[in-house]
């Protein structure tokens, strides 16, 4: 059985399913109807025990009479069903798509935007921009909720794994590990290729879900989906190999069960860089995705199932911080692979250290872009602003600090101001938008408070993007990109990552001073330098205490074949990326042989 970690799932008596993710997705009509009918049937079942208003008004929503007559029919039929006639339902099947021209496919037309709370505790939502979710009998109210950051609408509510669920998930992974690791590596690689094909098939739907659930711009989301498929193909072609050293044969063996705990900001590619090398090397994985991107996790896991990954080899443990903590504390987990904030990473590392388990940490950054007076300033400004606002300023490698040689400071500030002023804050699904929302209203409140504090401490705002001007969106999470100058040396904004598009500008007079200021933060993830001097470029790669250096390029550069990881508070020295990732998911074994004596 393919499982989401939950005994309730095994009993078949729960809870949430994403029935029709994201309006405007071209879903197969019959699947949408099945999902709608099922959801409605549940409502019908509830209605048979609790008085309800008839059929289409069941949701209490003024738009419930959908303009799509077939959908409405399905809904009404479903509504009229009784508990005993609820059809057998494969919740995963809803995600399947029909191939062909997207424009030719029917679209789900779900216009309700209101949650219906049943007296019995059953719930059904039909939300226009996101999805229908259904909570079924036996549902737990302990759920994590992800919301579209641009609208505030619910995208998914997912039950939180209990301690027993987490233990069971790890046990299932352990049971699956031996048979999976015993397969020829080429067979495992084939599953990765099938996964890549499915990601490519569902490119539009997955990208739309990334936009809806974490607020990435559509072009960024497309890039993330494409990169996920490309990474799967790459790992299928670059298998963990063996080599000769002296008389020994050095082989790589999988570690066993890998716990992968991931953040929301790149909800496909960050986990992909964990599970792809781990799986092809023969490990089993228990994945705790961010509570803010669970719908994407569910959709991705479904593709693995469809690709033929055997049951148990990739287990999903949905939930929040406590679930992550429980998973990392599981005594039989052989390796912890964590991406997230530095504070959380350090907490997680404690679990690994306590039992000498392998631990791979990819953490936060406070990344500098250093501009010398011999640089192409227009190009530097383009690179700095685009790296500051990528993923709406929520990338571990985002540009956070511009360090500029004093003689060109005014010119650079002017170039930055022009670009920041031209940004368009808006709907991340709209191709004209250049800056979307932060992940949550709480993230915006943090950024607002930090800005207010630092201005109170003497800093000056030198540029700010225009505010949101789209009444149909919920402004709660929208934060205009901001450039600040004059931040005092000891200020927290120069010492701690603020995950928002705030760029500080500082000046320097000497090259040595530039390297010193850049290295003053506790982090060591990424940096960029803009110069026409070969000597300065050489010094940058020597002197900057970071894992990624861009020379006349953005500081958030990354390529699949290159190592990706940071120094100091940004990581623990096990990079991801390319074949470097195999060091985090395998152990080396030296095998010495001699001819058998007869
Ligand atoms: P976070 O640390 O709050 O959460 C990351 C994951 O850890 C989530 O799944 C969360 O539920 C889980 N978690 C939270 N507390 C936990 C605990 N005590 N024990 C175990 N698991 C726990 O980070 P976030 O806000 O989701 O992501 C943003 C952070 O991630 C930023 O600091 C960013 O720089 C960093 N990041 C780093 C990289 C990298 O490759 N270096 C990439 C992306 C994001």
Strands, helices and their partners?
Elements: H1 7-11, H2 29-49, H3 69-80, E1 113-117, E2 123-127, E3 132-135, E4 143-147, E5 154-159, H4 163-182, H5 185-201, H6 203-214, H7 218-237, E6 243-245, E7 248-254, E8 257-261, H8 269-280, E9 284-288, H9 294-307, E10 314-316, H10 321-329, E11 335-339, H11 342-354, E12 358-362, E13 367-371, H12 377-389, E14 399-405, H13 409-421, H14 441-456, E15 460-464, E16 482-485, E17 502-508, H15 511-519, E18 523-524, E19 526-530, H16 534-543, E20 548-551, E21 567-568, H17 582-585, E22 586-591
Bound molecules: nicotinamide-adenine-dinucleotide.
Nicotinamide-adenine-dinucleotide (NAD) is lined by residues 261-266, 270, 288, 290-291, 320-321, 324-325, 328, 339-341, 344, 347-348, 362-365, 396, 497, 499, 525, 566.
| Beta strand count | 22
Which runs of at least 5 residues are low in confidence (pLDDT < 50)? 1-139
> Cα-atom Rg, whole angstroms?
25 Å
Could you tell me which ligands this complex binds, including any ions or cofactors? nicotinamide-adenine-dinucleotide
- The overall pLDDT average reads 81
Helix content: 25-40%
Note the beta-strand portion.
15-25%
Largest sheet: 7 strands, mixed
Structural class: alpha/beta
Query: Order of strands across the widest beta sheet?
Result: 15-16-17-14-13-19-20
Structural notes for this entry:
The protein is 37% helix and 18% strand. It contains 17 helices and 22 strands. It has helices spanning 7-11, 29-49, 69-80, 163-182, 185-201, 203-214, 218-237, 269-280, 294-307, 321-329, 342-354, 377-389, 409-421, 441-456, 511-519, 534-543, 582-585; strands spanning 113-117, 123-127, 132-135, 143-147, 154-159, 243-245, 248-254, 257-261, 284-288, 314-316, 335-339, 358-362, 367-371, 399-405, 460-464, 482-485, 502-508, 523-524, 526-530, 548-551, 567-568, 586-591. The strands form 6 sheets. Strands 15-16-17-14-13-19-20 form a 7-stranded mixed beta sheet, sandwiched between helices. Strands 10-9-8-11-12 form a 5-stranded parallel beta sheet, sandwiched between helices. Mean pLDDT is 81; it is low at 1-139. Residues 261-266, 270, 288, 290-291, 320-321, 324-325, 328, 339-341, 344, 347-348, 362-365, 396, 497, 499, 525, 566 line the site of nicotinamide-adenine-dinucleotide (NAD). Nicotinamide-adenine-dinucleotide is lined by residues 261-266, 270, 288, 290-291, 320-321, 324-325, 328, 339-341, 344, 347-348, 362-365, 396, 497, 499, 525, 566.
């Amino acid at each position: 059985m393919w499982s989401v970690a939950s005994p309730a799932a095994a009993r078949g008596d729960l809870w949430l399913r994403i029935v029709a993710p994201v309006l405007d997705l071209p879903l197969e009509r019959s699947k949408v109807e099945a999902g709608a009918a099922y959801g409605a049937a549940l409502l019908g079942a509830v209605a048979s025990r609790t008085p309800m208003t008839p059929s289409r008004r069941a949701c209490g929503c003024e738009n419930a009479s959908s303009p799509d007559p077939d959908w409405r029919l399905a809904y009404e039929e479903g509504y009229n069903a009784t508990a005993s006639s609820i059809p057998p339902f494969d919740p995963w099947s809803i995600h399947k798509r029909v191939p062909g021209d997207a424009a030719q496919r029917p679209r789900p037309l779900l216009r309700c935007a209101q949650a219906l709370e049943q007296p019995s505790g059953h719930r059904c939502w039909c939300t226009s921009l996101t999805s229908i979710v259904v909570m079924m009998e036996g549902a737990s109210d302990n759920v994590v909720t992800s919301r579209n950051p641009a609208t505030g609408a619910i995208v998914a509510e997912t039950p939180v794994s209990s301690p027993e669920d987490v233990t069971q998930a790890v046990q299932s992974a352990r049971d699956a590990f031996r048979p999976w690791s015993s397969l020829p590596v080429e067979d495992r690689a084939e599953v990765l290729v099938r996964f890549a094909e499915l990601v490519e098939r569902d490119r539009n739907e997955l990208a739309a879900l990334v936009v809806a659930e974490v607020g990435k711009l559509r072009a960024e989301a497309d890039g993330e989906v494409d990169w996920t498929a490309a990474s799967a193909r790459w790992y299928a072609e670059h298998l963990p190999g063996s080599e000769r050293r002296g008389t020994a044969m050095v082989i790589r063996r999988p570690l066993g069960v890998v716990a992968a705990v991931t953040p929301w900001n790149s909800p496909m590619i960050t986990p992909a860089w964990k599970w792809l090398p781990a799986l092809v090397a023969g490990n089993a994985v228990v994945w705790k995705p961010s509570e803010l991107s669970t719908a994407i996790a569910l959709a991705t896991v479904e593709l693995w199932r469809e690709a033929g990954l055997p049951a148990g080899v990739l287990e999903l443990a949905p939930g929040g911080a406590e679930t992550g903590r429980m998973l990392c504390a599981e005594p039989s987990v052989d390796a912890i692979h964590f991406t997230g904030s530095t504070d959380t990473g350090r907490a997680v590392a404690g679990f690994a250290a306590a039992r000498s388990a392998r631990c791979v940490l990819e953490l936060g950054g406070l990344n500098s872009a250093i501009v010398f007076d011999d640089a192409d300033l227009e190009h530097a400004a383009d690179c700095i602003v685009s790296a500051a606002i990528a993923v709406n300023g929520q990338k571990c490698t985002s540009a956070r600090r511009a360090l500029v040689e004093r003689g060109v400071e005014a010119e650079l500030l002017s170039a930055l101001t022009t670009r920041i002023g031209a940004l368009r804050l808006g709907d991340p699904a709209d191709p004209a938008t250049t800056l979307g929302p932060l992940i949550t209203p709480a993230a915006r409140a943090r950024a607002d408070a930090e800005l207010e504090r630092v201005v109170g401490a003497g800093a000056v705002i030198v540029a700010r993007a225009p505010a949101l001007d789209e009444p149909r969106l919920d402004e709660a999470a929208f934060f205009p990109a901001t450039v600040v100058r004059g931040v005092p040396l000891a200020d927290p904004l120069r010492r701690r990552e603020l995950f928002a598009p705030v760029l500080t500008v500082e000046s320097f007079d000497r090259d040595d001073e530039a390297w010193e200021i850049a290295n003053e933060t506790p982090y060591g993830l990424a940096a960029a330098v803009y110069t026409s001097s070969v000597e300065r470029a050489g010094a940058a790669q020597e002197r900057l205490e970071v894992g990624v250096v861009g020379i006349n390029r953005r500081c958030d550069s990354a390529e699949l074949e290159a190592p990706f990881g940071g120094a100091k508070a940004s990581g623990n020295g096990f990079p991801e990326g390319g074949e470097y990732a195999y060091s985090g998911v395998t152990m080396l074994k030296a095998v010495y042989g001699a001819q058998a004596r007869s």
